[in-house]
Design a protein that fits this description.
Chain lengths: 322, 365
């Protein structure tokens, strides 16, 4: 029983990683006042760029750089539309998701000729699992040994990076001058402008950080979790991350727990397939699959706590000229 | 900036046209980057979509779905709501259509089943939009987020229903049984044959006519009823609507119900018209494509018909293009769709100010 639990938690960590990265990406963007439903597209674009570059150059790290560049590019299009041209944030996000869904397959077929996939990656072209020091030595120690060797050790570098991003985000958002201004611009851009700080430049920086983190999430999907790019491989992760962002009420640590919860549900759903519970019978997998969405709707409806986003989110800032 | 001095044709025709052309121009660059000739590609596209009777039939068949979802998005847009859940509403609406067909196909004639299916599709689609609408109106939960969530819930629900309840016994594939022929919407080539009009076979069916009727209905509703006036007021200025005595939450709910009902009609075309059974993923992204159609059609039924036919042509021509040039996938159509959303939607202000400024200066001079 204990071992099963550890295995489920181990899977939870792997499944949660892209959610954490993408949700933190969304956090930076939305805290600055830019709604981002284009997380999905940026993850997918990052995944494709990472797999394509890793296949060509044979290095997962080069793939990672390309993933971030591609994702930043998409983020800048979003910024250009929403910040510079005061476009609708939702429409722009939908546009990016749609363009990426089509473009990845189109380019993939043209470059690799494998029906839109990229070649299977192996060796240095992938991020492989790291074994933490002494993991094998302590594996036999009861309880702690299993937790250390199974749960904490044996993940790839991006998993650890994602978890490290949470305190980092917390520090940037709450403890730095940039973070203070970022929060301010999402609540009251007029005040920020009055203080002589450029609203547009701040928001552009937030959007670029969002791009970097989505690129990491994408690279994780195609070069760490899987061994190559598949059509539509982001499979709604960007939207679950968005749900986790709302569920965590736009705060880094609660967002982490929301991602872990949604990842846990995903890991459980895989295990529950065809399993009959005593007294309840077989729970359909779909019922567990929809829980993240149902929980988010319930939260939004105000039935479990209250989700209040940044005040100026989604509204274009028009500088007044006297 | 003085809006009054900008000629009407500039804001309703010239600027949208330039934005769409920009989207096509960037699409051409993408095709060029793939090492193919965009002019040649456009030639195949146009021939595939309009070059022969069957192609035109397919184009209009795709357009039928897009008119339904385009109208759905635009009705909500007019009231200032973004219904991104057309995909889920179409899916559940299709369930409604399918259930009507499964229940009545052996007992009732088509003349009775068809109206029932229309009601079924509308009711189910509207029901799926009701919860997000209610939450937006009464509890202030953002309709965009809730409708996204409902898309995913719809997709899981349909998998569950098809796999566990509607699947035929002893078959592996998650499809319902095929309906009796009395629940098939007539194909256009069958429908027009008695009038001496010979068409080649295509999936185009009677639901296309219903789509056109819906356009007239939406046009009348939005611009020629008191209720449509309330809807437009809510969309233009929600605060002013309150002062004018309009019950914003009530209007919000009704708008979303109509929007969901319209999206639900996709099932008439796909389930009752073509597939003749309930199956997975028949909505195939039409709900999202409806956003592009509605943006390009400037939220007006006439514009939506034009945009739907154009996108229908892209779908149909895209398959022709992929057949003629194997290095290009039909997915290129999705790219073009996305670019249209980007340029006609998100970047609509990019050139607007400059072009309007030009005409204002000209009229002042």
């Amino acid at each position: 029983m204990f071992e099963t639990l550890i295995l489920i938690l181990d899977a939870t960590m792997r499944v949660s990683t892209p959610l954490i990265l993408a949700a933190l990406a969304g956090l930076f963007s939305e805290r600055s006042g830019i709604v981002d439903i284009g997380l999905e597209g940026k993850i997918l674009g990052g995944a494709f760029a990472a797999a394509a570059a890793a296949a060509v150059f044979g290095s997962a790290w080069i793939g990672l750089i390309f993933a971030m560049l591609a994702s930043i590019g998409l983020a800048l299009i979003h910024g250009f539309a929403c910040i510079t041209h005061r476009g609708d944030h939702i429409v722009s996000g939908v546009a990016i998701n749609t363009i990426v869904a089509g473009l990845t397959v189109t380019l993939g077929l043209d470059w690799f000729g494998m029906g839109g996939q990229t070649p299977t990656l192996a060796g240095d072209a992938r991020f492989l699992s790291l074994t933490l020091p002494f993991a094998d030595a302590v594996a036999d120690v009861p309880v702690i040994g299993l937790i250390y060797s199974e749960l904490l050790s044996g993940h790839n570098v991006l998993v650890y990076l994602a978890f490290a991003c949470v305190p980092l985000t917390y520090w940037v958002i709450y403890k730095t001058r940039f973070g203070l201004r970022l929060r301010a611009v999402g609540e009251n851009p007029h005040a920020v402008d009055t203080a002589g700080i450029s609203v547009a430049f701040l928001r552009y920086r937030a959007v670029i950080i969002c791009g970097i983190l989505c690129g990491l999430a994408g690279a994780y999907l195609s070069t760490a979790h899987n061994a190559g790019f598949l059509k539509d491989m982001s499979a709604g992760k960007g939207y679950i991350a968005l749900a986790a962002l709302i569920f965590g009420k736009w705060r880094p640590v609660p967002v982490l727990f929301a991602c872990l919860l949604f990842g846990f549900l995903d890991a459980v759903a895989v295990r529950m397939q065809g399993v009959s519970l005593p007294g309840i019978g077989e729970i359909p997998v779909q019922a567990i699959e929809v829980l993240p969405y149902v929980l988010t709707v319930l939260l939004l409806a105000g039935f479990i706590g209250k989700a209040i986003g940044p005040k100026a989110v989604g509204r274009p800032y028009v500088k007044e000229r006297a | 900036m003085n809006q009054a001095k900008v000629p009407v044709w500039v804001s309703i025709a010239l600027i949208p046209f330039i934005n769409v052309m920009l989207a096509f121009f960037v699409s051409a660059l993408v095709i060029l980057a793939l090492g193919e000739d965009p002019i040649e590609a456009a030639g195949y596209l146009i021939y595939g979509a309009f070059g022969y009777e069957e192609g035109i039939g397919y184009t209009l068949y795709y357009a039928t779905n897009l008119i339904f979802t385009g109208l759905a998005v635009s009705v909500a847009f007019k009231a200032g709501l973004f219904n991104i859940g057309g995909e889920g509403q179409a899916y559940i609406g299709g369930l409604g259509v399918g259930l009507v067909c499964l229940w009545f196909d052996s007992s009732l004639p088509l003349m009775v089943i068809a109206p029932l299916a229309i009601i079924g599709g509308a009711l189910f689609g509207a029901a799926w939009a009701y919860i997000p609408a209610y939450l937006q109106a009464r509890r202030g939960s953002h309709v965009v987020i809730t409708t996204i969530m409902f898309n995913f819930i719809a997709s899981s629900l349909m998998v569950y229903l098809l796999v566990n309840w509607l699947k035929q016994d002893g078959r592996m594939s998650p499809n319902s049984r095929t309906f009796e022929e009395s629940a098939w919407l007539p194909y256009m080539h069958e429908l027009l044959a008695p009038f001496g009009i010979e068409l080649s076979e295509s999936p185009l069916n009677a639901s296309f006519l219903w789509a056109l009727i819906c356009c007239v209905f939406v046009w009348g509703l939005i611009w020629h009823t008191r209720w449509g006036y309330q809807l437009r007021t809510l969309g233009t200025n929600a605060t002013a609507a309150v002062y004018a005595g309009i019950d914003n939450s009530k209007v919000t709910i009704w708008v979303m119900l109509i929007s969901g009902g319209l999206a639900g009609f996709v099932g008439l075309n796909e389930i009752m018209g073509v597939n003749h059974s309930l199956l997975l993923n028949f909505t195939a992204g039409y709900g999202f494509a409806g956003i592009a159609v509605s943006l390009m059609g400037r939220n007006h039924p006439v514009g939506i018909i034009v945009a739907a036919i154009l996108f229908g042509a892209l779908y149909q021509g895209g398959s022709e293009l992929a057949f003629e040039i194997p290095t290009i996938t039909p997915e290129i159509v999705v790219v073009i769709q996305g670019l249209v959303i980007l340029f006609s939607g998100a970047l609509e202000n990019m050139l607007k100010d400059r072009i309007e400024g030009f005409f204002i200066r000209k009229s002042v001079a």
